[in-house]
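Hi all, long-time lurker, first post. I run a small reading group and we've been trying to get comfortable going from sequence to structure in the token notation. Rather than ask abstract questions, I figured I'd post a concrete chain and ask someone more experienced to write out its structure so we can walk through it together at our next meeting. Sequence below, copied exactly:
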Amino acid sequence: MNLLVVESPSKAKTIEKYLGKDWRVVASVGHVRDLIPESGSVDTEHNFEPKWQIMPGKEKQIKLIIDELKKADAIYLASDPDREGEAIAWHINDILNSRKVLDNKPIYRVAFHEITKNAILNALKSPREINKNLVDAYLVRRILDYLIGFGISPLLWRRNLGKSAGRVQSVAVKLVVDREKEIEVFKPVEYWSVDANCNFNKNSFSAGLVKFNGKKIDRMTIENKKMVDEIVTTINTPTKGTVSQIDKKKIQRHASAPFTTSTLQQEAARKLHFSSKRTMATAQKLYEQGFITYMRTDATNLSVEAVSEIREYISKEYGDKFVPKTPNIYVTKSKNAQEAHEAIRPTHFLNQSVDLNGDELKLYELIWKRTIACQMTNAEFDSVSVDIETKNATFHCVGTTRIFDGFMKVYIEDNDDEKESDDVKLPELNINDNIEIKSLNTEQHFTQPPARFTEASLVKKLEELGIGRPSTYATIMSTIVDRKYVEQDKQHRFHPTVAGWVLISYLANYFKDLVDVNFTAKTENTLDDVSNGIKDKLSSLKSFWGPTNNMIESARGVKTADIINNINDFMHNHLFQDSEDKCPKCGAKLGIKLSKFGPFVGCSNYPKCNYTMKLSNDLVDKNTELSSEQEPKITEKNLGENIVFRIGKYGPYVTNGDKNISAKKYSFDNITLDIAKELLNGERKKIEPILLGKNPTTDKPIYYYSDGRYGPYLSSNRVNVSVKEQPSLDEAIDLINSKKTTKRSFNKKNK
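-- Answer (accepted) --
Happy to help. Here is the structure in token form:
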């Protein structure tokens, strides 16, 4: 028997069906080992030597692998085909060697980019060694992130500046903050457009003014109403015009490349309104079930076999005229797209039947259409541009008609598939034809500020700057939201929160390199160079840690008062752009203050003047004056019927004046009068737990309880884990298996 180790329990089940009784497939459930989460786990004085520990709850997975290894003739490590997957294989190999359990049994590394029977069998025929360069790149990334985190985060905590600062996440927050600053200083500029309502042989169309009295008219040329009135008066409609120039040509539009991780996240956000996290979680499920190829990739190329199947499918479904003479080839834009061999695509094309629904079906259909379209012929258009002359003016119009659908029959990027293209039809015109200009349409416009980032546009920006990699985009998006450095409005656009403003104010002053896009992109390029064997691990760590450590040491001695002054300079326009920054009580200067309850605005004349104002995430709430305490906080909520929800010294509780009852699992957002009455009457009904499924490690059921004393939680085999909401089975398995065994239960077990 042979043992195959993969990352996911779902993947293990799928693969074991393909391999049969001579194989045992088990899951590591992601990473099994990490740096000890305490200061000093990386020895910067001795070649950055790391100190590892088995991750909480993962000893069970290690034991499972070792137990199965005892029955096996050989072990194959088949973690994901990227840098992190290589690291998982390396960690498992190192653990097995250090515990001396291999007993001279061969250990192999295999990688496959799709979970199909042929792909897996072919990979097993060609095992290889663990790629040292990929592992070294992982080590540089992990050690550098650890050193930055443990170097900067304590400085943030000590001064109430933020929760943490990450190497890539901080740059993402700065991009959002910088965009907000651009929007705040933006001054709209007025301009006008003039269009002619034209008629020829009972056909109406519109043409835009491009020249007046011999002067070219650009977008911003007509600056005000006075200029518009002069034009309208001079042209004096209705009037006649003459066709002076016609330019006819055929144009073609090419299909978009098949999906990379980045473009999949962008298009899923635009078409399906999925967050990056939701897209990647869904893609992971599709991959593990064998429906798509590996979903973390920079590559846009497809295998010869896949292209052949796609072309055969197109010919069968749409006809030979939709199949180009030679396959369409797409050049990968990223210079470091070596970690995966193909773009994201379906694993099969000739057999379309898939048993999917919900998010999985929506995303699969998106990937299917994009992949089919990328190997179809170009869409073709007839385009005609016409100039119409009057005595004082020239008008210009363009007509475009799609004459052959090509790839657009299947898929149109960044548009609903059901919509028709924006064809603009003009009547058949010839030189010297007389055109009736019936009237002029004039419209006032104002220049618009740059748009706030959405997840799609922020991922695209990071990719353009060379920051982050396919495996990190979804994590970056969720992290900056979870840490409350940014928030999203109803249009899913990012706004920096007060916490985000404060964090970037501090980092931009004292850690410029950390939030500099060029420095961060250089780091990513170095990691890729290590992956490719161009640079070595030690010199790369030294080149980045030296300057970063100097920044950390310099920041330690800065006075808090100086930090606050710098933050006030950075945030002044944001805080006081629409009002005076003078205290309404004493006339002294207002400015931001820091407290353990969060930032707020206070008077510089404190403690003589106790004026404070609460900060919202957009601007100061000018109408909210707080008490004389420096730390603003809300302590109670009136629910009605003389019942109040309060945050007391020992946590949340409800009271009716006669009785106080703990309400620890509730907050101002989710407490209601009915819940409070049930708590006071002792009638809160117990909700039955939900069975999520079995834990493959212990073969025990996992239950989700929504009404725990301290909020929702998971429970399996006497292991309980708090959660915010009901997770998927895979997420639950990971949480349960990662839970650290308490000292008390350990002692019980060993009595």
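A couple of things your group might point at:
Residues 636-681 form one domain.
The two ends are 37 Å apart (CA to CA).
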